[in-house]
Write a structure and sequence with these properties.
The protein is an alpha+beta fold and 466 residues long. The protein is built from 14 helices and 15 strands. Helix 8 links the parallel strand 9 and strand 10. Helix 11 packs antiparallel against helix 12.
């Protein structure tokens, strides 16, 4: 009787071809070998195979190499600007990844599929580091040759995203740093920020940086979004802080004036939320050389020390654990709470923000415009609110200015929301009154609309029982 050919490490790698972790017990059965023989095959495969888990929960996956490497240390820059080792991220076949923690990191290890720390694509906690939006396109255009990626951000594949994140830190939002080069870049920026500016010099420098940003130069790095923007590290006589600076261009056209008014509206909205004891970003309006600048302090950076705080967007959490990009933040909150990701305080804050946004005409409350402080364990707290403004009044992508029509609040389509609607109505009423009274609003039409919307909100509040 002919002798059966010996099983080799190539047979093992063939079974691991998809990149998905395969339990040791299944490999033993499929290969027709004993556990000791499986152990020998794994050793023979060397660095091509990654062991995941322990004892009866042991599984194996096939590693791979990318242009950015095959494994990277994951670091955190703490609030005091010191470094913390979080673990190692391994690249697997099939554009999959496995995170191997250093210590207890239950939130980062939360199972998205069936295996803790395994991801079919870039891990959700790194997703917000992807270059995107206005500055993402600028980064792609200006840094393409250095990073070895296409100039057109729309052509980027996973390898390009990995190169950007591991070589430059990507957007730089939050506190996570993947790989040695990202750490070195972050430390160099911390020591000598490339976007440093004295507070007294902001009018001149901001105008220069706005021109550079519009010309396609890479001025700082920041979260994504389409509104023209750049970053700044501002120094005063007593403190330093990091900021994101949006701007409206010096143009006599109606669209430019509308954008300037909307930046003023965002400043007022954030102030109203803070006055109502709901966390919101601090902001300042600055007029210079015909530009209108809205300087928003970054909540993912610490004052003076310029350390970092964790961040993850609702979009990243939704894609990983909910499965929908819901436009109803209150419904998203309920689903995140059911998954154990947030607590009741965050649920209340998200519902109030959702209804406040509805009552000020914010038609752009997508999942990327709300975020959480990323921590290793426990529920995730909501970050201060940002990007909260009446986007229903924003000019179209072609520059057409939309008519200033009153809002249409609508009513909840499920129970349990009336208390949140009532809270939001009180704050939104104050918002519209302040818009009507603000010296920063250039348009008389918008002032008149603000008074009409104030009355609409007041009537709505009476209808829902407040």
């Amino acid at each position: 009787m002919p002798r059966m050919p010996s099983v080799t490490s190539l047979d093992l790698l063939s079974l691991l071809g998809s990149g998905e972790p395969v339990p040791a017990a299944r490999l033993v059965q499929q290969l027709g070998v004993s556990r000791p023989v499986l152990g020998r095959l794994v050793r023979e495969a060397g660095t091509h195979v990654l062991r995941i888990g322990k004892a009866r929960a042991t599984a194996y996956a096939a590693r791979t190499a990318t242009d950015a490497g095959s494994a990277w240390p994951l670091w955190r820059m703490r609030a005091d600007a010191t470094l913390d080792e979080l673990g190692t991220l391994h690249a697997l076949r099939g554009e999959r990844f496995q995170f191997e923690p250093a210590g207890e990191r239950p939130n980062l290890m939360r199972a998205v599929e069936h295996v803790a720390g395994h991801f079919s694509g870039l891990p959700w906690f790194l997703d917000d580091l992807r270059p995107q939006g206005f500055l993402g396109r600028t980064l792609a255009h200006q840094q393409a040759q250095r990073l070895g990626v296409p100039e057109d951000l729309n052509r980027w594949q996973l390898r390009d995203t990995l190169l950007a994140i591991t070589r430059s830190g990507g957007t730089g939002i939050g506190d996570l740093l993947l790989g040695r080069m990202a750490v070195e870049h972050a430390l160099a920026e911390h020591e000598v920020p490339s976007d440093a500016v004295a507070a007294s010099e902001r009018p001149v420098r901001y105008a220069q940086w706005a021109q550079a940003a519009l010309a396609g130069e890479d001025v700082g790095s920041s979260p994504g979004g389409e509104q023209p923007k750049f970053t700044a590290t501002v120094t005063t006589d007593t403190t330093r802080y990091a900021a994101l600076v949006k701007f409206a261009v010096p143009d006599s056209g109606e669209a430019a004036r509308r954008w300037a008014d909307l930046l003023a509206c965002e400043h007022i909205a954030l102030s109203c939320l803070r006055d109502a004891d709901l966390p919101a970003s601090e902001s300042e309006l600055i007029d210079a050389a015909g530009y209108t600048f809205l300087e928003v302090r970054r909540f993912d950076r610490t004052t003076n020390v310029l350390g970092r705080r964790g961040y993850v967007s609702l979009l990243a959490l939704s894609d990983a654990f909910i499965g929908d990009d819901l436009r109803d933040w209150s419904l998203s909150a309920d689903r995140l709470a059911a998954a154990g990701l947030i607590d009741s305080d965050a649920v209340t804050q998200m519902a109030r923000l959702h209804w406040f946004g509805r009552l000020i005409g914010n038609s752009d409350m997508h999942a990327g415009n709300l975020g959480f402080h990323l921590v290793d364990s426990g529920p995730l707290a909501l970050t201060p609110a940002y990007d909260m403004l009446p986007m229903s009044l924003a000019p179209s992508r072609t520059g057409a200015v939309r008519a200033a029509v009153p809002i249409q609040p609508g009513v909840p389509d499920r129970i349990g929301q009336l208390e949140h609607v009532g809270w939001a109505a009180e704050v939104a009423g104050r918002f519209w009154q302040q818009v009507a009274d603000s010296e920063h609003i250039q348009s008389d039409e918008l002032r008149r609309l603000a008074l009409r919307n104030r009355d609409v909100v007041a009537r709505h509040a009476r209808v829902v029982g407040r």
